[in-house]
Write a structure and sequence with these properties.
Helix content is 66%, strand content 0%. It is built from 21 helices and no strands.
């Protein structure tokens, strides 16, 4: 590493430490004390209970468990692994501080090496500085690094994976290939939907140039080895406990019980099928209406919503009443839950039968918008309770995110080969989520930001060279 590189890295570290402390202080100032790790460094995110208590129970009792003494597979143990590494020699609260510290450092390294990746890909004198500045204007992983949540770490690790893959192109190394496989497996254990990247990376590695076919298979095997071993161990553990083939996570009703019952999942699938909002924590959503214990309220849909639906507003009210009856009963009433499943499934089956191709396309619009078109500052707390500073920072972050989208899309419009190659992982993640998920949060899409940063860098370089009457190649070889 050159002295110049070291300066850039130190600046990135300082910038991220300052942001993490500001965001930590800002949210801790307005949150209950039991959510605070330390006033200036760390915050227990909403999903804290899904990750840390099971990991603590694994450390103290040897059982990865969420409630009572039941085995838990509601979250893959990617975060638990990090927790246990620090917990071996530190108290519980100190471990949380060390996790936030680790996330902050990895976030800075990820931003720096992603800029280095831009320089390697585009082979342009301005590529590094453009990508570096983008990471300052929109420091995406920081929105999660100050919290006990997995998205920031996944973003940062993915940035490092991209860099290691690029430097491994010419002088291929078995240990670097294995490291890439291990890191991608860890990323999948942090955010399972990112597992789609593993076969994509495998194809990229397989179609690289090798001396012979044996070398090709050898590097492919070394890449897949960490994934096969770790996923195999996790799947075996789940089979022992649940007597089912569970390579990733158990269904939510098994993991979390009543709050995510099978009936609720069927209702959410019904909402998803007509293209509604499935997140009950979103104000004014259809999902919130189903959980709102107010029988007089009307479903938050347009006046014309029921005109072309195979069910009426009264049908939805009856489904809601039945579901609220399930929630009001003590324990988990499987009889009522089954009634909810049957009624929701009845409407779902008829709706799917009636929908034409255009209706199915329209049903993807809201989920796609929720994934991609949110304010860039969506996960940022109010900065220091200062209205004007807060607004300025939000505007900068939001505009920077939109710029990344615009210039990234432009790289595709310009038909540069690299734009298409970088967009394939993004598109794969989006399609995967649309196909298998019933909830679509902006943070899921933000895990793809390393690719979007690189695409945006390429788009900006295209404009820069056009303005300077220079020519850049229409296809860049990264094979």
């Amino acid at each position: 590493m050159t002295k110049s590189d070291l300066k850039y890295l130190i600046v990135a570290l300082l910038y991220r430490f300052i942001l993490v402390m500001i965001l930590s202080y800002s949210i801790n100032s307005i949150s209950p004390e039991d959510r605070t790790i330390t006033k200036l460094f760390g915050f227990k995110a909403n999903d804290y209970g899904y990750f840390i208590p099971p990991a603590e129970k694994l450390y103290s009792e040897g059982l990865y468990s969420y409630r009572d003494d039941m085995p838990y597979a509601g979250r893959m143990p990617g975060y638990a692994a990090l927790y246990l590494v620090f917990r071996v020699f530190a108290s519980q609260n100190t471990t949380l501080v060390l996790i936030i510290l680790f996330q902050t450092i990895i976030g800075a390294l990820g931003a720096f090496y992603l800029a280095k990746s831009a320089a390697l890909i585009f082979k342009h004198s301005k590529a590094f500085i453009i990508a570096y500045i983008l990471s300052f204007l929109y420091p995406v992983s920081v929105f999660f690094d100050y919290q006990t949540i997995t998205e920031g770490l996944a973003i940062s690790l993915l940035s490092l994976v991209i860099y290691i893959t690029l430097i491994n192109r010419d002088n291929k190394s078995l240990w670097k290939t294995s490291l890439v496989g291990l890191m991608l497996t860890w990323i999948m254990f942090l955010r399972p939907f990112l597992g789609v990247l593993i076969p994509l990376w495998g194809l990229y590695i397989f179609f690289q140039h090798y001396e012979n076919l044996l070398s090709k298979f050898k590097f492919g095997a070394v890449f897949l080895f960490p994934f096969l071993i770790l996923t195999g161990l996790w799947t075996y553990r789940n089979y022992v406990h649940f007597h089912q083939f569970i390579p990733m996570q158990t269904p939510s009703h098994i993991s979390y019980g009543k709050i995510y019952s099978e009936g609720w999942n069927e209702i959410r699938t019904l909402i998803r099928t007509w293209g509604g909002e499935t997140a009950y924590f979103e104000p004014g959503s259809e999902a919130e209406w189903f959980r709102n214990n107010n029988s007089d309220s009307k479903m938050p849909v347009s006046a014309s919503f029921f005109y072309n639906k195979p069910f009426t507003e009264s049908d939805m009210q009856n489904l809601k009443t039945l579901y609220l009856e399930f929630l009001s009963k003590p324990g988990y009433d499987t009889v009522i839950d089954q009634k909810v499943i049957n009624l929701a499934n009845k409407h779902l089956t008829v709706l799917r039968t009636q929908q034409n191709f255009l209706d199915k396309i329209k049903a993807q619009i809201l989920p796609l918008r929720n994934l991609t078109l949110r304010y860039g500052s969506a996960y940022m707390p109010n900065i220091l309770k200062t209205v004007y500073i807060d607004k300025v920072v939000r505007i900068i972050f939001s505009l920077s995110y939109l710029c990344c989208l615009f210039f990234g899309i432009w790289l595709l419009v310009a038909k540069l080969k690299i734009g298409i190659l970088l967009f394939i992982p993004v598109l794969s993640v989006i399609i995967g989520l649309l196909c298998v998920s019933t909830i679509f949060e902006f943070r899921y899409f933000l895990t793809c930001m390393p690719f979007l940063f690189l695409m945006a860098t390429g788009g900006i370089l295209w404009f820069y060279d056009k303005l300077n009457h220079l020519r850049i190649p229409t296809a860049i070889n990264i094979s």
